[in-house]
Protein backbone atom coordinates (compact mmCIF):
# COMPACT_ATOMS: atom_id res chain seq x y z
CA UNK A 1 0.00 0.00 0.00
CA UNK A 2 1.42 3.38 -1.01
CA UNK A 3 -1.53 5.57 -0.05
CA UNK A 4 -1.80 6.87 3.50
CA UNK A 5 -3.79 9.35 5.49
CA UNK A 6 -0.60 10.79 6.96
CA UNK A 7 3.04 10.42 6.02
CA UNK A 8 5.35 11.27 8.93
CA UNK A 9 8.88 12.19 7.85
CA UNK A 10 11.22 11.63 10.78
CA UNK A 11 11.06 8.80 13.29
CA UNK A 12 12.34 10.46 16.44
CA UNK A 13 10.31 11.25 19.55
CA UNK A 14 8.17 13.84 17.75
CA UNK A 15 7.41 11.72 14.70
CA UNK A 16 6.73 8.50 16.59
CA UNK A 17 4.54 10.25 19.14
CA UNK A 18 2.47 11.72 16.33
CA UNK A 19 2.26 8.36 14.60
CA UNK A 20 1.10 6.68 17.79
CA UNK A 21 -1.77 9.14 18.27
CA UNK A 22 -2.79 8.89 14.61
CA UNK A 23 -2.71 5.10 14.43
CA UNK A 24 -4.81 4.93 17.57
CA UNK A 25 -7.26 7.19 15.74
CA UNK A 26 -7.44 4.48 13.05
CA UNK A 27 -5.57 6.51 10.48
CA UNK A 28 -3.36 4.87 7.87
CA UNK A 29 0.12 6.12 8.81
CA UNK A 30 3.58 5.72 7.32
CA UNK A 31 6.70 6.82 9.20
CA UNK A 32 9.74 7.44 7.00
CA UNK A 33 12.97 7.62 8.97
CA UNK A 34 16.59 7.99 7.85
CA UNK A 35 17.87 6.16 10.93
CA UNK A 36 20.27 8.94 12.02
CA UNK A 37 18.84 10.48 15.22
CA UNK A 38 20.54 13.59 16.56
CA UNK A 39 20.95 12.10 20.05
CA UNK A 40 22.53 8.86 18.85
CA UNK A 41 25.93 9.65 20.48
CA UNK A 42 24.30 10.13 23.89
CA UNK A 43 24.35 7.18 26.27
CA UNK A 44 21.17 8.22 28.06
CA UNK A 45 18.32 10.71 27.85
CA UNK A 46 17.27 12.71 30.88
CA UNK A 47 14.26 14.70 31.99
CA UNK A 48 11.67 12.45 30.33
CA UNK A 49 9.20 11.50 33.05
CA UNK A 50 9.25 7.71 33.66
CA UNK A 51 12.06 7.28 31.10
CA UNK A 52 14.86 9.23 32.80
CA UNK A 53 18.22 7.59 32.10
CA UNK A 54 16.94 5.38 29.28
CA UNK A 55 19.25 4.96 26.27
CA UNK A 56 17.78 6.96 23.37
CA UNK A 57 17.83 3.94 21.07
CA UNK A 58 15.68 1.98 23.54
CA UNK A 59 13.06 4.72 23.59
CA UNK A 60 12.86 4.74 19.80
CA UNK A 61 12.70 0.93 19.63
CA UNK A 62 9.79 0.93 22.07
CA UNK A 63 8.07 3.71 20.13
CA UNK A 64 8.37 1.86 16.83
CA UNK A 65 6.89 -1.30 18.35
CA UNK A 66 3.96 0.67 19.74
CA UNK A 67 3.23 2.36 16.40
CA UNK A 68 3.44 -0.91 14.50
CA UNK A 69 1.22 -2.53 17.11
CA UNK A 70 -1.61 -0.24 16.01
CA UNK A 71 -1.04 -0.90 12.31
CA UNK A 72 1.39 1.88 11.50
CA UNK A 73 4.08 1.24 8.88
CA UNK A 74 7.70 2.26 9.47
CA UNK A 75 10.30 2.37 6.72
CA UNK A 76 13.97 3.15 7.28
CA UNK A 77 14.67 5.25 4.22
CA UNK A 78 15.36 8.91 3.56
CA UNK A 79 12.65 11.13 2.13
CA UNK A 80 14.23 13.15 -0.67
CA UNK A 81 11.33 15.41 -1.58
CA UNK A 82 7.71 16.23 -0.85
CA UNK A 83 5.52 17.45 -3.70
CA UNK A 84 2.05 18.93 -3.49
CA UNK A 85 0.21 16.53 -5.79
CA UNK A 86 -3.22 18.08 -5.70
CA UNK A 87 -5.40 19.90 -3.17
CA UNK A 88 -4.59 18.52 0.29
CA UNK A 89 -2.62 15.58 -1.11
CA UNK A 90 1.13 15.04 -1.31
CA UNK A 91 3.66 12.76 -2.93
CA UNK A 92 6.69 11.85 -0.82
CA UNK A 93 9.71 10.70 -2.85
CA UNK A 94 12.04 8.22 -1.19
CA UNK A 95 15.75 7.57 -1.66
CA UNK A 96 15.10 3.98 -2.78
CA UNK A 97 13.15 5.27 -5.78
CA UNK A 98 9.72 4.60 -4.33
CA UNK A 99 7.06 7.23 -3.83
CA UNK A 100 4.11 7.31 -1.47
CA UNK A 101 1.11 9.56 -1.17
CA UNK A 102 -0.44 11.11 1.89
CA UNK A 103 -3.44 13.29 2.49
CA UNK A 104 -1.37 15.12 5.10
CA UNK A 105 2.34 15.34 5.89
CA UNK A 106 4.07 15.85 9.23
CA UNK A 107 7.78 16.72 9.04
CA UNK A 108 9.80 15.97 12.17
CA UNK A 109 13.32 15.83 10.73
CA UNK A 110 15.04 17.67 13.58
CA UNK A 111 18.21 19.71 13.34
CA UNK A 112 21.98 19.41 13.37
CA UNK A 113 24.44 20.98 15.78
CA UNK A 114 27.05 23.21 14.15
CA UNK A 115 30.05 23.33 16.48
CA UNK A 116 32.93 25.81 16.69
CA UNK A 117 36.01 24.79 14.73
CA UNK A 118 38.02 23.35 17.60
CA UNK A 119 39.86 20.04 17.18
CA UNK A 120 38.34 17.21 19.19
CA UNK A 121 34.89 18.67 19.86
CA UNK A 122 33.00 16.43 17.47
CA UNK A 123 34.70 13.25 18.70
CA UNK A 124 33.68 13.97 22.31
CA UNK A 125 30.20 15.27 21.43
CA UNK A 126 27.45 14.09 23.82
CA UNK A 127 30.05 12.35 25.98
CA UNK A 128 31.97 15.02 27.91
CA UNK A 129 31.48 17.79 25.35
CA UNK A 130 27.87 18.75 25.97
CA UNK A 131 25.32 21.27 24.77
CA UNK A 132 22.42 21.22 27.24
CA UNK A 133 22.91 21.61 31.00
CA UNK A 134 19.31 20.55 31.60
CA UNK A 135 20.03 17.31 29.72
CA UNK A 136 23.50 16.58 31.11
CA UNK A 137 24.22 18.94 33.99
CA UNK A 138 23.28 16.50 36.77
CA UNK A 139 25.67 13.87 35.42
CA UNK A 140 28.65 16.29 35.67
CA UNK A 141 27.52 18.24 38.72
CA UNK A 142 30.16 19.59 41.14
CA UNK A 143 32.96 18.80 38.69
CA UNK A 144 35.35 21.20 36.94
CA UNK A 145 33.27 22.51 34.04
CA UNK A 146 34.09 24.70 31.08
CA UNK A 147 31.96 26.73 28.69
CA UNK A 148 33.28 27.45 25.22
CA UNK A 149 32.31 30.82 23.75
CA UNK A 150 30.11 30.59 20.68
CA UNK A 151 28.54 34.04 20.48
CA UNK A 152 27.22 36.74 22.84
CA UNK A 153 24.66 34.42 24.43
CA UNK A 154 27.53 32.37 25.85
CA UNK A 155 27.70 34.61 28.95
CA UNK A 156 24.10 33.82 29.90
CA UNK A 157 24.79 30.19 29.06
CA UNK A 158 27.79 30.11 31.42
CA UNK A 159 25.62 31.59 34.18
CA UNK A 160 23.16 28.73 33.65
CA UNK A 161 25.90 26.08 33.77
CA UNK A 162 27.07 27.64 37.07
CA UNK A 163 23.91 26.17 38.64
CA UNK A 164 25.49 22.71 38.50
CA UNK A 165 29.03 23.44 39.71
CA UNK A 166 31.06 25.96 41.69
CA UNK A 167 34.11 25.63 39.44
CA UNK A 168 33.13 26.97 36.01
CA UNK A 169 35.42 28.61 33.46
CA UNK A 170 34.33 30.53 30.36
CA UNK A 171 36.76 30.28 27.45
CA UNK A 172 36.25 33.50 25.51
CA UNK A 173 38.15 35.34 22.76
CA UNK A 174 39.95 38.45 23.98
CA UNK A 175 38.15 41.76 23.67
CA UNK A 176 34.56 40.54 23.33
CA UNK A 177 33.28 40.78 26.92
CA UNK A 178 31.56 43.98 27.98
CA UNK A 179 32.24 45.47 31.40
CA UNK A 180 28.79 44.31 32.47
CA UNK A 181 29.49 40.77 31.25
CA UNK A 182 32.76 40.69 33.14
CA UNK A 183 31.17 42.00 36.31
CA UNK A 184 28.37 39.42 36.18
CA UNK A 185 30.82 36.58 35.68
CA UNK A 186 33.15 37.69 38.46
CA UNK A 187 30.20 38.15 40.84
CA UNK A 188 29.40 34.43 40.60
CA UNK A 189 33.05 33.32 40.62
CA UNK A 190 33.00 32.14 37.00
CA UNK A 191 36.54 32.04 35.70
CA UNK A 192 37.45 33.94 32.54
CA UNK A 193 40.11 32.64 30.13
CA UNK A 194 40.78 34.99 27.23
CA UNK A 195 43.31 32.91 25.31
CA UNK A 196 42.17 31.04 22.18
CA UNK A 197 41.48 27.32 22.58
CA UNK A 198 43.78 25.01 20.62
CA UNK A 199 42.12 21.69 21.42
CA UNK A 200 41.10 19.20 24.06
CA UNK A 201 43.20 16.99 26.30
CA UNK A 202 41.86 13.44 26.57
CA UNK A 203 43.35 10.71 28.75
CA UNK A 204 42.01 7.15 29.03
CA UNK A 205 39.03 8.19 26.90
CA UNK A 206 38.10 10.97 29.33
CA UNK A 207 38.30 14.73 28.89
CA UNK A 208 40.84 16.06 31.37
CA UNK A 209 41.57 19.56 30.14
CA UNK A 210 41.36 22.33 27.55
CA UNK A 211 44.59 23.26 25.80
CA UNK A 212 45.21 26.90 24.94
CA UNK A 213 47.23 28.30 22.05
CA UNK A 214 49.88 29.55 24.49
CA UNK A 215 50.49 25.97 25.62
CA UNK A 216 48.74 26.17 28.95
CA UNK A 217 46.22 23.48 29.91
CA UNK A 218 43.18 24.29 32.01
CA UNK A 219 41.94 21.15 33.81
CA UNK A 220 38.28 20.46 32.98
CA UNK A 221 36.16 17.32 33.31
CA UNK A 222 33.42 18.43 30.92
CA UNK A 223 32.98 21.22 28.41
CA UNK A 224 29.65 22.80 27.53
CA UNK A 225 29.32 24.28 24.06
CA UNK A 226 26.29 26.28 22.95
CA UNK A 227 26.07 25.08 19.32
CA UNK A 228 24.49 26.81 16.38
CA UNK A 229 21.30 24.97 15.53
CA UNK A 230 20.65 24.29 11.84
CA UNK A 231 17.20 22.85 11.05
CA UNK A 232 16.77 20.00 8.58
CA UNK A 233 13.98 21.81 6.74
CA UNK A 234 14.94 21.43 3.08
CA UNK A 235 11.78 19.41 2.36
CA UNK A 236 9.69 22.21 3.84
CA UNK A 237 11.37 25.15 2.12
CA UNK A 238 11.13 23.44 -1.26
CA UNK A 239 7.41 23.05 -0.62
CA UNK A 240 7.20 26.79 -0.07
CA UNK A 241 6.69 26.76 3.71
CA UNK A 242 7.42 30.17 5.17
CA UNK A 243 10.49 30.76 7.34
CA UNK A 244 11.29 33.72 9.58
CA UNK A 245 14.31 36.04 9.40
CA UNK A 246 16.39 33.58 11.45
CA UNK A 247 15.60 30.74 9.04
CA UNK A 248 13.15 28.84 11.27
CA UNK A 249 9.73 27.63 10.23
CA UNK A 250 6.82 30.00 10.77
CA UNK A 251 4.23 27.83 12.47
CA UNK A 252 0.67 28.31 13.58
CA UNK A 253 -1.22 26.47 16.30
CA UNK A 254 -0.02 22.90 16.93
CA UNK A 255 2.69 23.04 14.27
CA UNK A 256 0.70 23.99 11.17
CA UNK A 257 2.94 25.51 8.49
CA UNK A 258 2.00 28.14 5.93
CA UNK A 259 1.28 25.35 3.41
CA UNK A 260 -2.13 23.76 4.06
CA UNK A 261 -1.84 20.08 4.89
CA UNK A 262 1.76 20.27 6.15
CA UNK A 263 2.68 20.22 9.84
CA UNK A 264 5.94 20.21 11.78
CA UNK A 265 6.93 19.03 15.26
CA UNK A 266 10.10 18.92 17.33
CA UNK A 267 13.50 20.41 16.64
CA UNK A 268 12.93 21.11 12.95
CA UNK A 269 10.89 24.12 14.12
CA UNK A 270 11.75 24.42 17.82
CA UNK A 271 15.50 24.32 18.59
CA UNK A 272 14.91 24.27 22.35
CA UNK A 273 12.62 21.24 22.37
CA UNK A 274 13.99 18.41 24.51
CA UNK A 275 12.91 14.84 23.86
CA UNK A 276 9.86 15.08 26.09
CA UNK A 277 8.91 18.44 24.54
CA UNK A 278 9.26 17.08 21.02
CA UNK A 279 7.07 14.10 21.91
CA UNK A 280 4.42 16.47 23.23
CA UNK A 281 4.56 18.60 20.10
CA UNK A 282 4.15 15.47 17.96
CA UNK A 283 1.08 14.44 19.94
CA UNK A 284 -0.48 17.92 19.65
CA UNK A 285 0.23 18.06 15.91
CA UNK A 286 -1.32 14.62 15.43
CA UNK A 287 -4.57 15.67 17.10
CA UNK A 288 -4.70 18.79 14.90
CA UNK A 289 -4.01 16.72 11.78
CA UNK A 290 -6.75 14.23 12.63
CA UNK A 291 -9.21 17.07 13.23
CA UNK A 292 -8.30 18.51 9.81
CA UNK A 293 -8.85 15.11 8.20
CA UNK A 294 -12.21 14.74 9.93
CA UNK A 295 -13.30 18.07 8.45
CA UNK A 296 -12.30 16.83 5.01
CA UNK A 297 -14.08 13.52 5.59
CA UNK A 298 -17.26 15.43 6.44
CA UNK A 299 -16.99 17.60 3.32
CA UNK A 300 -16.46 14.54 1.15
CA UNK A 301 -19.37 12.68 2.74
CA UNK A 302 -21.72 15.63 2.25
CA UNK A 303 -20.61 16.00 -1.37
CA UNK A 304 -21.17 12.31 -2.06
CA UNK A 305 -24.53 12.39 -0.30
CA UNK A 306 -25.65 15.36 -2.37
CA UNK A 307 -24.57 13.53 -5.51
CA UNK A 308 -26.83 10.66 -4.59
CA UNK A 309 -23.98 8.36 -3.65
CA UNK A 310 -25.07 5.36 -1.60
CA UNK A 311 -22.20 3.53 0.14
Describe the structure in your own words.
Keywords: Flavoprotein, Oxidoreductase. It catalyses: [thioredoxin]-dithiol + NADP(+) = [thioredoxin]-disulfide + NADPH + H(+). This is NAD(P)/FAD-dependent oxidoreductase. GO terms for molecular function: thioredoxin-disulfide reductase (NADPH) activity. It is a single chain. The protein has about 300 residues and is of the alpha/beta class. The two termini are about 20 Å apart. The strands form four sheets. Strands 1, 2, 3, 4, 5, 6 and 17 form a seven-stranded mixed beta sheet that branches. A five-stranded parallel beta sheet has the order 8-15-9-10-11, covered by helices on one side. A three-stranded antiparallel beta sheet has the order 12-13-14, with no helix packed on it. The radius of gyration is 23 Å and the shape is elongated. It is about 25% helix and about 25% strand. Helix 1 runs parallel beside helix 2. It folds into two domains: about 190 residues, 3-Layer(bba) Sandwich (FAD/NAD(P)-binding domain); about 110 residues, FAD/NAD(P)-binding domain (3-Layer(bba) Sandwich), CATH 3.50.50.60.
Amino acid sequence: MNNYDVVVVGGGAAGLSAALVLTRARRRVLVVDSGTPRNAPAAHLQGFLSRDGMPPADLLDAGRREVEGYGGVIRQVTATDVVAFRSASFQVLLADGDRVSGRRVLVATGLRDELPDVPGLLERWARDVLHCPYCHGWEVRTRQLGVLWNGPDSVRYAQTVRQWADDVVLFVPPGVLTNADRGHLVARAIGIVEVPVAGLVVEDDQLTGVELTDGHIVPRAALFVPPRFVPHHGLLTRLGCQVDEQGWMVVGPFGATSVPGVWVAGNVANPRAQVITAAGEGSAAAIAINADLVEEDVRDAVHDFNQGFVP
